[in-house]
Amino acid sequence: MPGILYIVSTPIGNLEDITLRALRVLKEVDRIAAEDTRHTRKLLSHYDIRTPLTSYHDHNERTAAPALVESLRRGESIALVSDAGTPAISDPGYRLVVAAVAAGIQVTPVPGPSALVAALSAAALPTDRFVFEGFLPEKTKQRRERLRSLHDEGRTLVFYEAPHRLKESLNDIEAILGDRAIVIAREVSKVHEEFARGRIGEIINRLADREIRGEIVVIVEGFTGEPALSEELLKEDVRKLHASGMRVKEIAELLGGKYAFSKGQIYRITLELKKVSSR
Ligand code: SAM
Fold it and tell me: Same CATH topology for 4-113 and 116-220?
């Protein structure tokens, strides 16, 4: 009989956030495949679990997945865990799940914490319909394009974000999506847990003098269907960005998704304003 592959959620901070079933499964399986074996060993030793560990991470999953599937075929039961939260959610696991399912192996989740659900549950933004976008692209151009593509999305938007990129991302979110309601959920379930709620501009000001640390989920109100912003507001934005030293092309790129004008139109409007201001 082939073994079972268990996808086990582990705490996202507070070590008490683990289910009784997760602890039992982690004790009973033949092997635990972990994203970082040293990290998982801390959790296991806290609960006195001595199951052997194998590493399964982004860099070895192409070779590790077939080997694990082979072990499952031979009858081993395996628990997959990531460093925190639910495996395969912005974490390694997807390839192993696909390979196991393709091999006819039973794959079963052991549900538990995930940062996106934990943050959303306490955010006070609509939870009936939401989109999880994972991490925004690191490169500015791709990040802005992604945000533009989300401009008309009416569902609540959920992102994971690295602390050193938060301020830059918030500036882009405000410029492209407009000054919407936002929640920054930081260090959820840990000692320094913090939920910052407000309009994006307000939160940007509040965080301006702070060094941002820790793990972060960003939750943004969906598009509420307000009419497209007027040309006057667009011109005001262009003037501000131009005065801050931004180049015409960059201004057109940045504001392209925010207004009901194409990048080309914004480019022309910016050039005209530039001419007027230099007369
Ligand atoms: N698989 C995990 C899950 O289910 O939540 C997510 C893994 S992803 C690589 C890590 C990101 O999740 C962090 O960069 C952060 O954005 C978010 N995250 C994880 N733990 C968090 C916490 N305690 N508070 C806020 N965000 C957290």
Answer: no
Atom of ligand 1 nearest to the CA of 87: 1
Task: Say yes or no: domain 4-113 is CATH 3.40.1010.10.
Answer: yes
Ligand 1 center to 112 CA (angstroms): 13
Q: What is the pTM of this model?
A: 0.84
CATH of domain 116-220: 3.30.950.10
Q: What is the DSSP string of the chain?
A: ---EEEEE-B-SS-TT---HHHHHHHHHSSEEEESSHHHHHHHHHHTT----EEE--TTTHHHHHHHHHHHHHTT--EEEE-SSBSTTSSSTTHHHHHHHHHTT-EEEEE----HHHHHHHTT-S--SSEEEEEEPPSSHHHHHHHHHHTTT--SEEEEEE-GGGHHHHHHHHHHHH-S-EEEEEESTTSTT-EEEEEEHHHHHHHHTTS---S-EEEEEPPP--PPPPPHHHHHHHHHHHHHTT--HHHHHHHHTTTSSS-HHHHHHHHHHHHHHHH-
Domain assignments of the chain as residue spans, ordered by start: 4-113, 116-220, 231-277
Cβ of 10 below 6 Å from ligand 1: no
Return per-residue pLDDT of the chain as tens, 279 residues.
999 999 999 999 999 999 999 999 999 999 999 999 999 999 999 999 999 999 999 999 999 999 999 999 999 999 999 999 999 999 999 999 999 999 999 999 999 999 999 999 999 999 999 999 999 999 999 999 999 999 999 999 999 999 999 999 999 999 999 999 999 999 999 999 999 999 999 999 999 999 999 999 999 999 997 655 567 778 888 888 888 888 888 888 888 766 666 777 778 888 888 777 666
